[in-house]
Each structure stands twice: as structure tokens, then as C-alpha cells.
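Q: Convert this sequence to C-alpha cells.
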Amino acid sequence: MSEAFRQDSTEVFYSSVFDMASDKLSQRFRKFKRKDRKCQAFVKRIITSHLFRVIMISTISLNAFFMVLWTEYEIRYRLFRLFEISEVVFVAIYTCEFFMKIYVDPINHWKDGYNLLDMVILIIIFIPYVLREVKGKNFRYLNIADGLQSLRILKLIPYSKAIRTLLAAEAQIMYTVASVLILFFILLYIFAILGFYLFGVLDRVDMSWGSLDTIFFTLFSLATVEGWTDIQMQLEKHNFIVSRAFTIIFILIASFIFLSVFVGVIIMPTEVSIKKFEQDQMLEICMEEKKQMILKRQREEFNRRMQIQKTETVDKDLSALVEKVKKTPKDTQPVVLGFKSCTTRLCMCWA
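A:
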């Protein structure tokens, strides 16, 4: 009892110490002020722009297409140099993308699971190069490392909101799926032991029922209803009386019940996620339309006020000019405007 208490207390102590240390480190990093704010903002605008998104999606898709072409020997032989150059370009783009994201936010970058996925994929990309340099080109496990390069297409996930929504839905039902799989394994275990003692007895050993590993594979084939007639014909050749009841009961439980439940558990949350995704898309469209309407109204209001201000300014200038003219003293000095005007002025003086 005391030892358990000590172990729990030490675990709590170590966890608290780790939390305190991580909090202090995060506080120190937060207090640190970067001097390259303009460059950081510029790089952030680049990686969040629509053009960068299109470039990355096109690059990943083209890389996947080239990997498909690489599987054809004739195409690989003819375009070998092109494949080598394109591989260097693809790896360089992936590496630049990774370091640009780290440069923008080196602390919060690791809190996103999709960024961790990018890091894992980047490590997988460099594994074949390291193995060729260290172990040589004839390393026996090099083909596995080359086969894992197909995981590069997973880099499309962060750039697709629909895929992220589906993955989030699948992550929410992992506990339910695990529970269904455990129940299915329990069912396989029960029928495997029962099938071994019914059909795998010493004097009547059948290759499909002789050991538990082959029995599990046979039962899985029965559960998928794939080739179950061949399995049943083998059992009937040995005159097993209960074979038909065994096969019918297992297929009813495993295929029509468990697999249906399993599919339903996956499909229902997926449909909910799809509906939620469509609602979010409609909401975004509505918000964008409202935003455009508000901007249009603000622009019209701004133009109207500017027009009113210009009109008021012209009226004020005109009224100020009129007042200035009124306040100007009258000129009593004679002005020679011409012969006719002079004659008129002399007549007026004589009068």
C-alpha cells in the first residue's frame, strides 16, 4: 500500500515538474521578441495564400502520378533522367514547405497533428537516401523504404477540408469501432475453439481446421461470405453432421449482424460529418455573401458621403466668395472703358 502510494506520489511529482518546466519554457519563448516581423509576415502570407495551396496540391498530385509511371519498366527506362530530376525537385519543395512553416511559428507549429504528419512523411522521404548511403544499394530492406514513399500522397490531407472532416469523424468513433472489433474477435475465438474440437480432431484432421491460425483465417473467410461453399463442401466430405448448423449460425452472426453493425457504426457518423461539412460550407458562403453586401453598402455610403462633402465644400466656397465680393468696397474712381463709356460718364457729371 505504501509502495503504491509512493509510486503515485512520485509520478505526480514528476508530471508536475515536467508541466512547470514546459510552462517556463513556453513563457520564455513568448517573451522573446522576434526582430524579423516583416519577413515572418511575408512568409506567412505566402504559405497561407491560395496560390501556394494550388502549387502544393499540384506538386503532390504530380509526384503521385510519377510514382505510378515509375512502376512501368519501359517508361522508367526511357524517362529515367526525368524521374531523377523530378524527384530532386519534389523533395526540395517538401523540405522548403516544412521549414517555411516552422519559420512562421516554431512553437505552435508542433501542436497541430497534420504538421506532425508532414514531419513523419518528410522523414520517410529521406530514409531511402540514408539507407543507400549507409547500407548500399543492395540492402535487403531498401524495397520496403521505397514502397513507403507512397505515403507522400497523405500530404494532401492538410490541404483538403473535406478529408480532414472525415478523419475527424473517424477519430471520434474509434472507441466504438474498437469495441465492435473486440466483440468480433471474441466471436472468432469462440467459434475457433468450437471448430477445432468439432472438425479438427486427431483422426479427422482437415487442413482448414487443424490449428488456430488456419481456423481464424477460415472463419474470416466465412464472415466475408467469400468461398464459404468450398469450405462447407470440404466439411461435408468428412460427414460432419453439425457442419451445416455451424456454418449457418456463424455466417448469420458474423456477416449479417456484426459486419452490418460495423458498417453502420462507420457510416452514420460519416453522414453526420458530411452534413455538418455541407452546413459549414453553406454558412461560409452565406457569411461571404453578407460580407460582400456589407462592403458594398459601406462603399456606397462612403461614396455618398464623399459626394455630399464635395457638394457642401463647393457651396461653402461659393458662399464665401459671395461674402467676399459683398464686403469688397465700391470703386469710385473713373475707369476708362471706351469712348462710349467716357461720353456717358461726362454727361452724368454735367448733369
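Confidence is low (pLDDT under 50) at residues 1-15, 335-351.
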